[in-house]
Amino acid sequence: MAAFPARLAYIAKMKSRGKHRQPAVILLSGGLDSATVLAYATLQGFDCHALTFDYGQRHRVELAAAKRVCRQLGAATQRVVKLDLRAIGGSALTANIAVPKGRSAKSMHRGIPVTYVPARNTIFLSYALALAEVLKARDIFIGVNAVDFSGYPDCRSQFIKAFARVADLGTKAGATGSHFKIHTPLIKLTKAGIIRLGEALGVDFALTHSCYDPVRGRACGHCDSCLLRKRGFKEAGMVDTTRYA
Amino acid sequence: MAAFPARLAYIAKMKSRGKHRQPAVILLSGGLDSATVLAYATLQGFDCHALTFDYGQRHRVELAAAKRVCRQLGAATQRVVKLDLRAIGGSALTANIAVPKGRSAKSMHRGIPVTYVPARNTIFLSYALALAEVLKARDIFIGVNAVDFSGYPDCRSQFIKAFARVADLGTKAGATGSHFKIHTPLIKLTKAGIIRLGEALGVDFALTHSCYDPVRGRACGHCDSCLLRKRGFKEAGMVDTTRYA
Predict the structure, then answer these.
(1) What is the ipTM of this complex?
(2) Looking at residue A36, which CATH number applies to its domain?
(3) What percent of chain A shows pLDDT beyond 90?
(4) CB contact under 8 A, A112 and B169
């Protein structure tokens, strides 16, 4: 946490020099991955416009986390877009399917979990693309990473690459010669690696939320997301400040 | 209109023979293009699940048209998904930008119109993909066509092809070996061609709505969409039953 004011000071210095900062759209859930991405994009000198989705997720408490993270890291704007995914259904994160608890790392990484939301990242990136076009931004940041893509197909780099092509072909900006870049700064990192990076960039992890099935606003401590977070802090050799139920 | 009962009888016959009908997702706006697509997919033997978007469009009257079309053509289900595009803005169809009136065909086809909604078809197809995955459908139908793609980049076949790749790479179904097909039966047709096809398939065009800027529920007669529709009926040598304001 101590690290960030120095970075903020650096950004302020850049601003005062009149250096133009390019706008970028950052997909921000309120979890520790996307908080790290926001810090990363800010440090790269982008003017960060956060995009958060209220998709009827069980863990709506992450929306408040996203707001806190934007405030801490100085996002230029934050938009919360309401998505109607319940009408489509098909996931434990939105429908009436139980969130699995206490799974081993092995069973967690076998197959595609029930918490998979059909085409979620495609939908999220589509909105990010629409916003990028309106803001005349050509850069989109998303926190997909190695921990996820064993289970979620829409977290793999081939998918991201295919989406970048859609972005170039399906927009006014692309049709008139611009190229969109989908940045995935975490794609090769483990959870511990992300935590180390976030810490170095000054992210206050206590503000973030990861749990899929919170109990009175606190993390359950047993779902896949909680287990990955706990293990990540342990492997990173850092204190986990998460308040568990 | 006389044609349809015969087709319906054919479908009923197929059903009674126990022939399994594959599910398909049909993007249905309520305009004459997508109504023709729905009739086409039905005739191809698909069990059609219509997907309509309420995206804060000025011409919300098209939502009622979509419902009427589903009823006429016997869609298996219809879902109306509310989209929060106003939060993103940037188009005359959703924001406070004037819809152009009385333009010539030439000026209509110069550049990208202000009625372009940023990344709209990318967003629409993303939802269609999510629904297809939930319904175990591998076929998605969209009414993009030659009239549109001079102006809207996300109506071109290259874009559709790029999106199909995203579908295969970004879903559980695709990751486990399935392929999605994005059908574009109108892509090479002019407005007159679409009208002729729809007529042959039994679409009741009086139920459809095209106008971007309706006046008390009636078509304005002067926006690009009205002008294209009028010209299409004229070229097809058919009576335009649209009720203009």
Answers:
(1) 0.84
(2) 3.40.50.620
(3) 56
(4) no
